[in-house]
Amino acid sequence: MIPLPNNAEIFPDGESVARAAADRLVTLCAESKQERIAICLSGGSTPKRLYALLGGPDYVGALPWDRLHWFFGDDRFVPWTDEASNMHMARAAFGDAPIPEGHLHGIPTDGTLDSAASAYAETLKGFYGADELDPARPLFDLVLLGIGEDGHTASLFPGKPALAERQAWVAPVPEAGLAPFVPRVTLTFPALASSRQLLVLVTGAGKRDPLVRIAKGEDLPARYISSIGNLTWLLDRAAADFG
Ligand code: 6PG
Predict the structure, then answer these.
(1) Is 19-202 in CATH node 3.40.50.1360?
(2) How confident is the model over 60-82, as pLDDT tens digits?
(3) 234 C-alpha to center of ligand 1: Å?
């Protein structure tokens, strides 16, 4: 039996994974006493259904949209109008969600890759109100992550320099390890770990291989996903059924 990640919860399908994540966000917001609630969004295709649910009739009325601020764990260094952009994906998936102006904090894609990473770090520091992460005060209330078939998470790819970054909150990724092969900007492990809750959403049989490789101890980036708060893997059966 290949062990599942610690704190793994298995659901029948992708829809139930998305609904479980949405329910956790609703609960988090209901329990929060904070004026502002910071959510770090993942990219790719897995979270599309979650974002559509949040902006849809089942959840839109249950969220304090005026208190919610949405950030990105990574993005492709392409214009926000580009199909490959996570900002483009999130805007389309959220649909008519009433996100107030200035509450969806996209990673800049003008200037250089380095200037975009620096600018986003400043955005995060400005929101956080400090230049150093305090272990007693998470940057994010909730971080959402996925994993790639190569075991990457955010845009932290195997063998790439950003993996080792422990000071900067945001790093440039000149070479992506998986398609789309465009430069990326990614939050680093310390920034992602600065979270009250962290959910890793993993669905589909295509993710069995990285899960097995991680379970067998392979040194893949996703095995270093951590949180100073609660970390939970939300898996569907298709991804988890490798035991
Ligand atoms: C990205 C994501 C990335 C994603 C995984 C899984 O920009 O691609 O942030 O880390 O979470 O690659 O992607 P899928 O959900 O498309 O399988």
Answers:
(1) yes
(2) 999 999 999 999 999 999 999 99
(3) 15
